Amino acid sequence: MKPQSFREKDKAVIESFITFRRQQPQVEQHLNLSWSNWGFGIEPLQRSAARLEKYGVRYIELHGNRYGRDLGYKTKETQKILSDHGIRVSGVCGMVSPQCELSSNVPTITQRSIDYFRRNIEMCAELGGTYLLFAPGAVGRPKPYDENEFFRASEAIRILGDDFSHAGVRAAIEPVRSAEVSFCHTFAEAKRLIEAVDHPAVQHIAGDIYHMYTEEQHVAQTLVDYGEMMTNLHMADSNRCALGEGSMDLDLILMALYVVGYNNPECFCSAEPLGPGGDPYPQMFGSPDPSLLDRLVKNTATVFYERQKEILSATDEDLRRW
User: Fold this and answer.
1) Alpha-carbon dihedral sign for residues 301, 307, 311, 312
2) How far is CA 141 from CA 58, 63, 101, 281, in A?
3) Is 180:140 a contact under the CB 8 Å cutoff?
4) CATH superfamily, domain at 30-321
5) 103-162 pLDDT tens trace
6) Cβ–Cβ contacts within 10 Å for residue 8, how many?
């Protein structure tokens, strides 16, 4: 029986992974699992860090919560909490709303967003993070203002370029599904925006598997095609729940990441299982059940590490049969 077209692409990624393993039979650096903590809501950071430590997650992607001069994570306090639990900061997740976005058609909102990002770039650098990711348009606003959102976003991001550069922080643009944002839905569109910004500190993409399944033709092939530009990948299963609780082909995604050399100190897989639905942002102010969060982290970390071990130890024949 003739295979479906996506199966042909699956096979191509598998063959590339087999070639990678032959060239590097001993893989010393594994993929870095992090956790995007804004989905934990208002839970104290101390409790979140203890949970991540318990289940072997050594990195955290911090909620970009410096919404004002007196708000958000305090550097010394945060450093102590994370250090006590052996947790390092991978990066910061920038939050973009209609009241604070770079593509706004209201200049005062654009300035508010620029100021917000400057505070969180500073926070990222102070806490040792490597990237700050963001959508160029507001999450939860899928209807465009007009035809000039791309232009306004590129101009505002360029203004922030020197801030990213001086802080030594990577600017990472996140494509988000069209049900949540008005533009920049695919990796190709993110790359075009990066080219329009034209700043050496704005060169990276932050992927999200959940959005990719909606917007990209083939998730693993997209990771291979754009892997050199990626610095973070949000991970959840096909239903936006914990890894292993849906039908996502995690093995193929992990293979694609190894193929592009994503197993390096500046690239991260950040779990972000927010659950299905529309605008997820209300979760950042919620009070989720700690037992639910324990299950999310335990299941995700267990599956991530198990599947990584499986693909690295499988025979070529097993990979081709799979």
Assistant:
1) positive
2) 33, 20, 11, 11
3) yes
4) Divalent-metal-dependent TIM barrel enzymes (3.20.20.150)
5) 999 999 999 999 999 999 999 999 999 999 999 999 999 999 999 999 999 999 999 999
6) 11
